[in-house]
Design brief:
globular, 3 helices, 26% helix, 157 residues, seven-stranded antiparallel β-sheet, alpha+beta
């Protein structure tokens, strides 16, 4: 199994300050259409195909893999992506919270496996190394905040 976590401060010196509400709007937009937040051509399709009071379902093609995710939103707090189909199984969470000093933080954590692959095998070990690397989810959190700031500057958030 793959477990990874990363936390970054939302607001750092020299950057446009983001409120919880603005970060939340960015997270919600990312959940509904990953193309707005991922590098060009990484996500070639992202459509919400079902919606209910408790969740929505999106189908996407990301890095060449077709995936179906059940996504739950806990307003102003947490987005959870349940991997229903695709190469991974499990859950990915993006959570907003205040640390002990009251500073807004954005946290990523996941608990995943790779469908059809040996548990703890070389494929999972490689995936774990990628998640934990400098180009893993910590950088994804930072790019999400950067893109949210851009959308705020463009008046779209």
């Amino acid at each position: 199994m793959i477990y990874s976590t990363a936390t970054v401060p939302v607001n750092t010196d020299g950057e446009t300050r983001l409120t919880r509400e603005k970060v939340w709007k960015g997270l919600e937009l990312k959940a509904r259409d990953a193309r707005l937040f991922l590098p060009p051509r990484l996500c070639t399709r992202c459509d919400v195909v079902e919606e209910s009071a408790t969740h929505f379902v999106r189908e996407a093609t990301i890095a060449g893999s077709d995936i179906r995710e059940i996504i739950t939103l806990e307003p102003q707090s947490k987005v959870t992506f349940f991997q229903a189909t695709g190469p991974r199984e499990g859950a990915i969470v993006n959570e907003l919270f205040e640390d002990e000093a009251g500073a807004l933080q954005l946290k990523f954590y996941c608990y995943l496996g790779l469908r059809g692959k040996e548990r703890g095998g070389p494929e999972e070990q490689a995936e774990q190394a990628q998640f934990d690397s400098d180009n893993g989810y910590r950088s994804a959190l930072l790019s999400t905040l950067k893109r949210t700031r851009e959308l705020v500057a463009e008046g779209k958030i």
